[in-house]
Amino acid sequence: MLLEKIGISAGLVWASLEKGELNVKAVKKATKLTEKDLNLALGWLAREGKVKFNEVEGELFVTLA
Questions:
Q1: In terms of C-beta density within 10 A (0-12 exposed, 13-18 middle, 19 or more buried), how is residue 64 classed?
Q2: Tens digits of per-residue pLDDT, 1-15?
Q3: What residues of the chain score a pLDDT lower than 50?
Q4: pLDDT value at residue 59
């Protein structure tokens, strides 16, 4: 059941990133996910090589790979 929820959350994150790079705070706001669910979804997508991360002045940005 948890894997299904993570997959759904990953889909929401993916959809929010289709418009381009966002900082993690903006992804959280766009998806309305909890911090835990957002982190699980980002980890899932990162492990699959579907997102890339970039840190600028201490702020984390994410984009589709």
A1: middle
A2: 799 999 999 999 999
A3: none
A4: 97
Task: Measure the CA–CA gap between 2 and 18, rounded to whole angstroms.
Answer: 25
Burial of 17 (0-12, 13-18, 19+ CB in 10 A): buried
Whole-angstrom Cα distance, residue 18 to residue 46?
15
pLDDT in the model for residue 1: 74
Residues 24 and 2: their CA atoms lie apart, in Å, by: 22
Residue 44 phi, psi dihedral angles, 5° rounding = -60, -50
Strands (E), the chain: 22-23, 51-56, 59-64
Give the CATH number, domain containing residue 44: 1.10.10.10
Q: Which domain holds residue 21?
A: 2-64
Looking at the structure of the chain, the number of domains it has is 1
